[in-house]
Design a protein that fits this description.
This protein is α+β, with helices and mostly antiparallel strands and 366 residues long. The protein has three domains: 66 residues, Muramoyl-pentapeptide Carboxypeptidase, domain 1; 175 residues, L,D-transpeptidase catalytic domain-like (Beta Barrel); 63 residues, no CATH class. It is built from eleven helices and 15 strands. An eight-stranded mixed β-barrel has the order 1-2-3-12-10-9-4-13. A four-stranded antiparallel beta sheet has the order 5-8-6-7. Strands 14-15 form a two-stranded antiparallel ribbon. A hairpin with an 8-residue loop joins strand 6 and strand 7. The radius of gyration is 28 Å and the shape is elongated.
């Protein structure tokens, strides 16, 4: 018997001996965590095993180049010694670029050399940081759920553990960031009002009302309400001291009426939370075209709101009446998870993305 058990009663000793032989309970993790963990192991077995020797910075190296820098590049990428930039080296450079979130041009430009000289360590640390983020997801997230990767600006619809569809989204600007959070979508609202945040009312509505007169508010499709309560009454814009609102001395509630130009679009998807975050349609379609889809005030604008509505509740735009704020309750609430991954599992290797909110540095210091 182990010396650490001396002095215990027979029952206590047997219990501790039993506990020592019982394997710890393995926490169930989300499948994305397991996938990223496997791809980290593959990264460590390939790129992390190469010589971590530096390549001297200089002009871009392309196929046909010769010299000491080419020799250093070949050595860094695990190729036979030589001083010529040949087709094999170009393919190896392209593979490195693809594996590290760089355009796979096959040319060793300044960004590629900087990534090579950074070494594998920082990339491994970044992957570990994102594994920590994925660990926050439940191992069993539900039969049907939504997953929004804020850093990728993309939403996935999951059924029975597998993604069945995805779409682009627009997320918050760096000064109005979309948070990492979890919620439950319980209902959606067709033909919604948009309740303007007070700072937008102060910066946009009040100056126009002051310049063009209070009638501008109604003409532009807005309404003023008596309070933030659910039973607030609509009041005439002429009763408001708009100069005081513009100066920040008064706060007034303004909402935009439903219609083609409403910032919420035709539907919003509600998961009640203290931050006022939700998913919604938008009339501004151009923002979905680019890769950097960072333009909202914190909420998530979805590319195909009708498809999402049909997936959630089996109804589309033609099923809604023209009445404002038509609430549709879901038969079964659907979880939604907002995460932020700058290193995420891809089809066959890790996908690195820009840290749009500069959260990686904060995570590394905690």
């Amino acid at each position: 018997m182990s010396a650490c058990l001396i002095g215990l009663s027979g029952g206590e000793a047997r219990q501790q001996a039993h506990d020592a032989n019982v394997a710890p309970v393995q926490r169930v993790v989300h499948p994305l965590y397991e996938q990223l963990q496997r791809q980290l192991a593959a990264y460590e077995a390939s790129w992390a095993q190469l010589p971590q020797t530096p390549v001297r910075p200089g002009p871009t190296l392309t196929k046909g180049a010769v010299g000491e820098r080419v020799a250093a590049l070949r050595h860094r990428l695990g190729l036979p010694s030589g001083e010529r930039f040949d087709t094999v080296l170009a393919a190896r450079v392209s593979a490195f670029q693809s594996a590290h979130g760089l355009p796979p041009t096959g040319d060793a430009n300044a960004a590629t050399v900087a990534a090579l000289n950074k070494g594998a360590g920082p990339y491994e640390d970044l992957i570990q940081l994102n594994l920590d983020r994925l660990r926050a997801l439940p191992g069993d997230p539900g039969r049907r759920y939504l997953l929004v990767d804020v850093a990728a600006a993309r939403l996935w619809l999951y059924e029975n553990g597998r993604p069945v569809h995805s779409m682009r989204v627009v997320v918050g600007k760096p000064d109005q960031q979309t948070p990492e959070m979890m919620g439950v979508i319980r209902y959606m609202v067709f033909n919604p009002y948009w309740n303007l945040p007070p700072d937008i009312t102060r910066a946009s509505i009040a100056p126009n009302a002051t310049k063009y007169g209070p009638e501008w508010v109604s003409d532009a499709g807005y309404e003023v309400l008596s309070s933030w309560a659910s039973d607030a009454a609509v009041v005439r814009p002429a009763t408001i001291e708009w100069r005081a609102v513009a100066a920040g001395d008064e706060v007034v509630r303004v909402r935009q009426r439903p219609g083609p130009g409403n910032m919420m679009g035709r539907v919003k998807f509600m998961f009640p939370n203290s931050r006022g975050i939700y998913l919604h349609d938008t009339p501004h379609r151009r923002a979905f075209a680019g890769d950097a889809r960072v333009a909202s005030a914190g909420c998530v604008r979805v590319e195909d709101a009708e498809r999402l509505a049909r997936w959630l509740a089996g109804v589309g735009f033609e099923d809604a009446t023209g009445a404002p704020e038509q609430r549709i309750d879901l038969a079964q609430p659907v979880p939604v998870y907002l995460i932020y991954l700058t290193a995420s599992p891809g089809a066959d290797q890790i996908v690195f993305r820009p840290d749009i909110y500069q959260r990686d540095r904060q995570g590394a210091s905690t």
